[in-house]
Amino acid sequence: MFGLIGHSSSFAQAQEKARDLGLEEMAEADMLAWCSAPPQLLETFKVTSRTGQTIEGTYIDSCFVPEMLSRFKTATRKVQNAMEMAQKNGINVTALGGFTSIIFENYDLSKFQQIRNTTLEWERFTTGNTHTAWVICQQVERNAPLLGIDLSRAKVAVVGATGDIGSAVCRWLSQKTGVAELLLVARQQQRLQDLQTSLGGGTILSLEEALPQADVVVWVASLPQTLSIDHASLRKPCLMIDGGYPKNLDAKVAGDGVHVLKGGIVEFWQDIGWQMMEVAEMENPKRHLFACFAEAMLLEFEGIHTNFSWGRNNISLANMERIGEASLRHGFQAIGLNPAQLSRAAQGGVELAAA
Amino acid sequence: MATLEAPELSAAVGNLPDFTTEAYKDAYSRINAIVIEGEQEAHDNYISIGTLLPDQAEELTKLARMELKHMKGFTACANNLGVVADMAFAKEFFAPLHNNFKTALAAGKVPTCLLIQALLIEAFAISAYHIYIPVADPFARKITEGVVKDEYTHLNYGQEWLKANLESCREELEQANRDNLPLIRRMLDEVAGDAAVLQMDKEDLIEDFLIAYQEALTEIGFSTREIARMAAAALVG
Questions:
Q1: What does residue A208 show for φ and ψ, rounded to 5 degrees?
Q2: In the structure, what pLDDT confidence band is assigned to residue A337 with cuts at 50, 70 and 90?
Q3: Phi, psi of B18 (to 5 degrees)
Q4: pLDDT digit string (tens) for A174-233?
Q5: Cβ distance B17 to B198 under 8 Å?
Q6: Which tens digit of pLDDT belongs to each residue from B4-51?
Q7: Which of A37, A137, B4, B60 qualifies as a cystine partner to A172, CB 3.0-4.6 A?
Q8: Interface predicted TM-score (ipTM)
Q9: In whole angstroms, what is the distance from residue B104 CA to residue B119 CA?
Q10: Residues facing residue B190 across a β-bridge
Q11: Residue A275: exposed, middle, or buried by beta-carbon count in 10 A (0-12, 13-18, 19+)?
């Protein structure tokens, strides 16, 4: 049995979901009531690999909503209680989805292992970041050439380069993909310098400096609502992989030679009989899912019952390769630019050629 | 990946309260009284349930005795801090729930009696004790740690009986839930101020109570949807 811990993308959406589930009281309840709502085990479903192997999974809604981020105790309690619920239900490996892994990491919840009479066993949980990092790298490698970007001559900016996913993406792109130049963007200078040293290269730049130079931008940091990007200054074509959470880049910059791809999303080879991805606003909610959730499935398929992705900057290239091979074998693939985007890119190419 | 600025963790693992202040003792006089009264009523309730289930009376008497032992322990906690428990407040605090119990008992409604005592009150106690332990004075901490283990035994007793009889009492339980869960919510609201002085957070109390209660309902055999619906009555009651 594998588990997925998730949450609604907003308070309004959580209320709407409660109404769909017939929980009229919760749909009407205010934010304060939601702050005391316990996690809910919402669905149990089966997933069959391309190999024919079938496993069972469970979705736990932590009842966290992003509006609770400013409430430290509430946010941490939601994550801890959802984890306890997963463990008490005997789930072998559970992925911490959306903000839950971020809360765990940034609030250092590994210090609090005892939840009431339960001692959390970390080996039952994964952030899913190894698979997410691998998927994002695949998205860069496969989609850049479709836009006419030659990665061996391209500059790739990684925004949020020093994070767990960001640093793994940098390692892979510099050592496995062989991009011409990595532009490293993050807030903490010391971490950036350490990363640069460990990579043996890369150029440290501010966001404003990096964007106009980049042929590909990988976003693995959240974008402040106030961030504005000067579309005119961007290179055309430019591939942007929106690996942040929530995914809000498309509305800001897409169009006219700038192509935005939802990062860290995979498509499964067949429909999954679940409801949960509909609330994540996936394009194809029966087949599309977050790569971090898929990691829990892969670990269960492979019988790897350990916290495969855990802590910060522990993602190795070997583990990325291992999870990537499993991903392909069991029927996942990274989502790519859709035909409409590619057709726009082709038209843009013609216009550029004509000019 | 989003990023958050981590606040100082000291807020979460803060220092213990000053047990010697008048404000602490004042709040403690009511919280402690609730605990003492709760244990006394639990004793009486298990003995009463035994009259409806004569073949279980011996087991129920055993459970009841444990509650009396707890009561003595918590009385010692008050003495240790030099606090006199406000028993009049506590009796009034429990009155609505206690009246519902008495009505169900008179009508011979075992499932309702068990839902009130073995599920609601025990889940309430378990969650409150778990939250109290990290902020308790050393003497009370030790006693409470011993008590909380016993309370799971009591919750378990109610769970097992209701599980075995679920099909015949499902509707009665749903009604009992509707009638009594909002009372628990009101009780929590009533003590929130005093609990805060003891560094026990209302949000924590409600959520932890609902977790313990939901776990019991799961064990009894309710579906996840039914449980979510039943629990919602506590959040908006």
A1: -65, -35
A2: very high
A3: -85, 110
A4: 999 999 999 999 999 999 999 999 999 999 999 999 999 999 999 998 767 678 888 899
A5: yes
A6: 544 443 344 568 999 999 999 999 999 999 999 999 999 999 999 999
A7: A137
A8: 0.87
A9: 15
A10: none
A11: middle
> What distance in Å separates the CA atoms of residue B219 and residue A88, rounded to the nearest whole number?
12
B9 interfaces chain A, CB cutoff of 8 Å: yes
Distance CA B173, CA B112 (A): 6
Q: In a 3-state reduction of DSSP, which class is residue B39?
A: helix
**Rounded Cα distance, A113 and A96, in Å:** 16
Q: Which residues sit opposite A54 in a β-bridge?
A: A48
Which residues does residue A158 pair with via DSSP β-bridges, in sequence order? A184, A218
Distance from CA of A262 to the nearest CA of B (A): 12
Is B86 in CB contact (< 8 Å) with chain A? no
Where does A168-226 show beta strands of DSSP type E?
181-185, 203-204, 216-219
- Are A28 and B236 inside 8 Å of each other by CB? yes
Q: What is the dihedral of CA A301, A303, A309, A310, to 10 degrees?
A: 140
Cβ atoms of residues A40 and B229 within 8 Å: no
Interface residue B232 vs chain A (CB under 8 A): yes
| Closest listed residue to residue A29, CA positions, set B228, B191, B97 | B228
Compute the nearest-CA separation of A13 from chain B (Å).
17
Q: Is A19 on the interface with B (CB under 8 A)?
A: no
Structure tokens at B236: 């908006």
Angle at A192 between CA A186 and CA A194, to 5 degrees: 160
Question: Contact, A313 vs A300, CB < 8 A?
Answer: no
Give the three-class secondary structure for B80: helix
A108-147: pLDDT as tens digits: 999 999 998 899 999 999 999 999 999 999 999 999 999 9
Q: Is A337 within 8 Å of A345 (Cβ atoms)?
A: yes
CA–CA min distance A151, chain B (Å): 24
Chain A / chain B CB contacts < 8 angstroms: 109
Amino acid type, B67: E
Handedness of CA B148, B151, B152, B153 (dihedral sign): positive
Secondary structure, 3-state, B86-114 = CHHHHHHHHHHHHHHHHHHHHCCCHHHHH
Question: DSSP class of residue B117?
Answer: I
The single-letter code of the amino acid at B85 is: A
E strand map for chain A: 2-6, 40-48, 54-61, 93-96, 114-115, 118-119, 125-126, 155-159, 181-185, 203-204, 216-219, 238-242, 258-262, 265-268, 288-290, 332-334
Q: Which of B204, B215, B228 sits opposite A77 (nearest CB)?
A: B204
Query: How many alpha carbons lie under 13 Å from residue A105 in its C-beta half-sphere?
Result: 25
CB neighbours of A339 closer than 8 A, spacing ≥ 6? Answer: none
In this structure, what are the phi and psi dihedrals at residue A337, rounded to the nearest 5 degrees? -60, 135
